[in-house]
Amino acid sequence: MAKTLKGGLLLSAGLGLGQGLSFLRNLVVANFLAPDDFGIAMSFAITVFLLESLSDMAWDRMLVQAPDGDDDELMACAHFLTFLRGVISATVVFLIAGPLSKYYSCPEALWAYRTLALVPIIRSFVHLERKRDHRHMEFKKDVATEITSQIVGAFVGSIAALLTQHWSCMLTAILAQSMAWALMSRFVANVEYRWVVSKEMTLRFFRFGWPLIINGFLIFSVTRGDMMVIGGEVNMSALGVYAVASLLVFAPGGIITRVVSTLYLPRLSACQDDAVSRLHEFSLCRYGALVTALPFVTFYGLGSSAVVELLYPEKYNAAGSIIPWLAIAGGIRILRSAYSTAALSCGATTLPMHANILRASLLLVLLFAARAGWTLVQLASLAAIGESLALLGIAGMLANRFEGAFKNVFFPFFLVVAFGYGLQELTRATLSESSPLWRVVLALASSTCVLVVVVIARQEVQDSVLKFLGRKQGA
User: Fold this and answer.
1) CA–CA separation, 18 and 12 (whole Å)
2) How many CB atoms are closer than 10 A to CB 57?
3) pLDDT over 70, % of the chain
4) How does residue 350 score in pLDDT terms, banded at 50, 70 and 90?
5) Which of 3, 20, 222, 389 has the smallest count of CB within 10 Å of its CB?
């Protein structure tokens, strides 16, 4: 447990710094661009994420989960397949550039959408050793790669925004970050980068990852589908405002879900044959998700509009009213990450896919709602409903694999919803006229108190923290 906590702190710090740099890039770009131009800039990031999601077969996670994941031959085969994935993705990006520019009603950006085809080619040369090291709870190489690439992307994007004040600055940043990401993964690797073509290994990778092709589309629908619909069905200015709210919420929320998955996937995978240990680890995983979800919704419930007012120009203030609903959705998604991790640990890769189908079903409702003229706040509330369906769905599907999976989901679910909704109503009724800085300080203090209370509520977590701190002091 102490090693898990140590790895979690390193991974959290690394991902937090990386996402912080990405947020800084987007913040600078948004401050130099009008909402409609920022919407065009964000459409580039949405397009890259779409292709990444549609082609992600989780081959790096197979290197963590497979009993022979340390085999260099297996990793070399994954390198070859990753390159093929990049070539196919680049071709698709180039072909859909025209339809995308028409959907977003911005034909002037056609050349930029076509240039994005370079991104999957660059990223296809990544070295996977840093991901394989997760088997042994080693995250230094992965953290170094992520931070370096984000530093480059933030620096290049900020300078480009300052000099051009044009939406093309985001394209420049994405290309620079991708190049740095691929190069740094090679630099930190100890094993030579090479390809192996093996029919047997290729079939293994595809058997493991094929359900995740569909799941990749569903992940895009869950995480970026709403922005794509708003950009195409409303307008790019609305996308710019909605993107500000979404990035403020789901950037840190994404860090939390990745940390939960990265920390507990090796632990749950290691005890597949021990039912008692597996239930124990699953319990810790669920609790870890709750420990982070409650402070998350507490902060955004109290400080959402204040954060927007402090960081962005007045033209983005409408994002403050969108954030509380997205924060509830984000908190529920954090809870769901524990169940998705448990499913992956026992090879049930179709279960996260089924849960994401439930979540993505709300995207069709969002499409019709956007065409019917719903406000951005109303559209954001659909995200919380969709995440609720997905959480309850995957908990029910895991009930026959993990005892108590379904019945134990309701209490944390209602806690997250009650905290998120109750605090946003409290803020609207009593704190709306307070200074933004005061509201942010209150939100930080309140979320910290909630974190402390939830942590000490479970003796095992408290003992692990004290044990870890004792070792650090002894060293």
Assistant:
1) 10
2) 22
3) 93
4) confident
5) 3
**The amino acid at 60:** D
User: Nearest to residue 326, comparing CAs of 393, 264, 248, 269?
Assistant: 248
Q: What is the pTM of this model?
A: 0.81
Distance CA 284, CA 125 (A): 36
Between CA 303 and CA 428 the distance in angstroms is 11
Q: For the segment 65-118, what is each residue's pLDDT rounded down to a tens digit?
A: 888 888 899 999 999 999 999 999 999 999 999 999 999 999 999 999 999 999
Alpha carbon 225 to its chain centroid, in Å, reads 14
Closest Cα partner for 180 from 25, 8, 12? 25
- pLDDT of 399 over the 90 cut: no
pLDDT in tens, 428-458: 778 777 888 998 999 999 999 998 888 777 6
Q: Is 313 left (phi over 0), alpha (psi -120 to 50) or beta?
A: beta
Q: Which of 50, 51, 109 is nearest to 85 (CA)?
A: 51
DSSP line for 172-213 = HHHHHHHHHHHHHHHHT-SSPP-----HHHHHHHHHHHHHHH
> Angle CA(253)–CA(320)–CA(18) in degrees, nearest 5?
35
Domain ranges of the chain: 1-219, 224-475
Query: 346: how many CB neighbours lie within 10 A of its CB?
Result: 17
Question: In sequence order, which residues have a C-beta less than 8 Å from that of residue 438 and are 6 or more positions away?
Answer: 306
Q: What is the C-alpha to C-alpha distance for residues 128 and 63, in angstroms, rounded to an integer? A: 9
Instruction: Tell me the DSSP string of 415-472.
Output: HHHHHHHHHHHHIIIIITTS-HHHHHHHHHHHHHHHHHHHHHTSHHHHHHHHHHHHHH
